[in-house]
Recover the amino acids of this structure.
């Protein structure tokens, strides 16, 4: 029996994946990995911010050039899509509302939920993609027993970004690939150098997406009105003047302008000044309360309440013992979880948590599985 002519066999069309490319090394290596795995890969550069295109701090132009260079090297098509209007409406407006209310929001969490895994995902599906991908250090797996997609921590503990992705739902997780989630950052850098990526040694971005590396207070000044007021210590003594409560966050140590002041009753003479930290913000009276010492009781919380909860499975976990993070890069903290309403929950910690900040995210974990989380509303302090 003669073998069929290979040219008469219709080729198997590879799955189309649209990958978000930022110009950084992680998404670049992720794109290369997908190409190696046989996917039809299209790169997509998201332009989310337009206000400062010619600003010395804005890297968008260089980032786009890096994306084009990488795409050319690995042999994929790339396009730029402007999501600036959606970003301003869904992310930036909320960011300003939260800051004006004296809270400290996390725009990266909102950007992932509203732009990268909503606007970007919709666009990718519209152009015929079956999946999207990003350079995040996280993983997705299908739990065969439950039929649910689970969000897992990235294997590199020092780079795990599941905290920022905790609002992803089943529909989003089922359509998402995280190629570098199985790798260490050092391995990603090594691959980038071995395949000759032009951005192999490019520094990681550290700024909030729309602020970049520009001074944060200068940026906020353009959008939020200032109302100066007193800085007070726990005795009620006025020890300085703040420039507006929106410009400070709990646990902040730098930029208070009170470094040389000692606590009332402190011994005169030599010795280091114990640093001051922002501990409370009284929005009604416009007072910034500060304390001395990292472990002051005003900075330690055994319990928090959160709202606007979002769970990866679609439903809240059972009440019980888990681990949680109240800020990025924090070690998992053992806690008891309880949920009284659909979108609200409380966490009681085994060990006191430092500077738990309203507006930030409380994210729940069961081992390596990220269950979801919510926005911190309030925290109980020791005093």
């Amino acid at each position: 029996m003669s073998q069929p002519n290979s040219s008469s066999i219709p080729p198997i069309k590879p799955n189309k994946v649209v990958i978000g490319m930022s110009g950084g090394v992680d998404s670049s290596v992720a794109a290369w990995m997908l190409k190696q795995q046989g996917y039809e890969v299209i790169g997509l550069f998201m332009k989310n911010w337009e206000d400062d295109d010619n600003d010395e701090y804005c890297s968008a132009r260089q980032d786009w050039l890096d994306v084009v260079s990488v795409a050319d090297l690995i042999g994929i098509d790339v396009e730029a899509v402007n999501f600036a209007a959606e970003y301003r409406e869904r992310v930036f407006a909320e960011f300003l509302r939260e800051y004006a209310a004296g809270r400290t929001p996390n725009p990266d969490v909102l950007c992932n939920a509203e732009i990268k895994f909503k606007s970007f995902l919709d666009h990718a599906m519209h152009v015929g993609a079956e999946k999207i991908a990003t350079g995040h250090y996280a993983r997705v797996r299908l739990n065969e027993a439950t039929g649910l997609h689970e969000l897992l921590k990235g294997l590199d503990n020092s780079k795990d970004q599941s905290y920022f992705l905790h609002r992803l739902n089943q529909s989003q997780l089922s359509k998402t690939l995280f190629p570098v989630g199985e790798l260490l950052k050092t391995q990603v850098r090594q691959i980038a150098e071995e395949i000759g990526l032009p951005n192999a040694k490019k520094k990681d971005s550290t700024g909030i997406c729309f602020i970049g590396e520009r001074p944060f207070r200068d940026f906020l000044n353009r959008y939020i009105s200032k109302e100066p007021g007193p800085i007070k210590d726990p005795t009620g003594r006025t020890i300085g003047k703040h420039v507006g409560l929106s410009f400070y966050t709990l646990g902040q140590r730098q930029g208070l302008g009170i470094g040389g002041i000692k606590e009332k009753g402190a011994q005169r003479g030599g010795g280091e000044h114990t640093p001051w930290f922002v501990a409370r913000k009284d929005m009604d009276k416009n007072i910034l309360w500060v304390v001395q010492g990292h472990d002051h009781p005003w900075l330690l919380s055994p319990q928090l309440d959160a709202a606007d909860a979002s769970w990866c499975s679609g439903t809240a976990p059972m009440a019980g013992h888990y681990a949680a993070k109240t800020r990025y890069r924090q070690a998992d903290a053992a806690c008891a979880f309880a949920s009284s309403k659909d979108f609200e929950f409380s966490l009681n910690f085994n060990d006191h948590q430092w500077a738990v900040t309203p507006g930030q995210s409380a994210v729940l974990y069961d081992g390596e599985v990220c269950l979801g989380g919510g926005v911190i509303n309030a925290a109980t302090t020791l005093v």
Notes: The helical segments are 25-36, 60-74, 84-100, 107-126, 170-174, 185-194, 216-221. The radius of gyration is 24 Å. Residues 11-216 form a domain with the Rossmann fold fold (CATH 3.40.50.620). The CA atoms of residues 101 and 144 lie 44 Å apart.
